[in-house]
Fold:
Amino acid sequence: MKKLIIILTTALIAVSCSDNLEDLNQNIKDPSTVGGESLFASAEKQIVDQIVTLNVNQNNLRLWVQYLQEATYEDESNYDQITRPIPDNHWTAMYRDGLKDLDEAARIIELTDNDLTNDLKPNKLAIIEIMTVYAYSNLVETFGNVPYSEALDRDNALPAYDDAETIYTDLISRLTAASNNLNPSLGSFSANEDLIYGGDAAAWKKFANSLKLRMGLVLADSNPSLSQSTVESAVSTGVFTSASDNAFYSYSPTDPNTNPVYVDLVLSGRFDFVIAETIVDRMNDLEDPRRPVYFTDVDGEYIGGTIGTLNTYALFSHVAPRIAEPTYPGILMDYIEVEFLLSEAAARGYSVGGDAASHYTAGITASFEYWNADGLADYLAKPEVDYNSALATSTSSPAWKQVIGTQAWLGLYNRTFASWLSIRRLDYPILKEPAMPETGYPVRYTYPVSEQTLNPGNYSAASSDIGGDAAETQLFWDVFYTFPF
Structure:
């Protein structure tokens, strides 16, 4: 895979932290090139940047889940993945900038022999493995079949694509092993080398189990038995229990290490986005107290832009200033998401402690607390929000999908892949059809054009195996999908 990507992006590779590595066998006790710890830090940043960015060339999921709407362009809101090579850029970011550096980091750390740090090596390798699983799970959830067993083989320029379900099952096993291998009594990376958890092995263990919880629920409709055992194993080992467990990247107040959203909304000097009418209208209907901390107002009102058309920037609400701060953390996973996942697991009858209603309420509560919003008690008492009351009026089957799915979408505001995954799994909330959609609702990224051009045989086999390289092709776990508008 890496050779293939190198062919495609020669100029960009020159800036990758791992591209100038010399022969590691020259001196394994004192590598003369970039250290494994530096490569790990680079991989963290590249992956988080790609997950949180608002750049229309990189990540349009805030548009697709209809948190935002465009003011300058309209293609991306209408599900155009081709005009800007969005799948190609995501593929490159995850494989070349993320997985490549993680692979090299593990290689160097494994080879390095240093009496002062050898006892930290197992934890470092386990943490690298957890981030590797995160990156691969994202690729499978985004594309379907992807290169995996041959992906990081330096001698294979044309890697085959592995079956998505097979990859996902193996990733769960790898994640379980990595979590089990972590020793919280020992250290790992320093605070400068790990800008997510500062090398805290216990925190990484909770993150691994929380990711395992999510991955288990991805399988709920396609493999209920494995789903339940995976979820219950994750919970018994220990998932997030408060906001202090959140997996977020700590950005710097100075460029180039600021949050990418700050770059896109402030440093760019552009005015490309307004809040989407879908989320504004829903929160207005609920008189949701989080509106002042989610959005700006227009003369005291919250107004969203029309989906799929150009919208005059000054006439609509925008993201709250907090989101555009340079140091706003880049979130990989948080306690809000975990509580909604636990609510879903309980609703499915899994043994996770507590019931669906209690975890649902905890998810909403965690959202209010994270955003420092007032009015929680009154909000929870609304018939449209109270879990049991909302179930009674739900039009979905099962009813909990609509109830949990809608509030999870509101609670995951400003998230990208997590929100998109939630909507695709639960089929809620009901979104608005764009004015001029290029496709039906995209339940996957189409494969990169570069793969079609340079790896055509393996691309064609993968495309055929998943049922066609279309935005609407349901992935293996997406059993009950219906278009959300």
User: Anything to note?
Assistant: Confidence is low (pLDDT under 50) at residues 1-32. The longest strand covers residues 330-333. The first helix runs from residue 2 to 8. Strands lie at 68-70, 146-147, 161-162, 247-249, 273-275, 330-333.
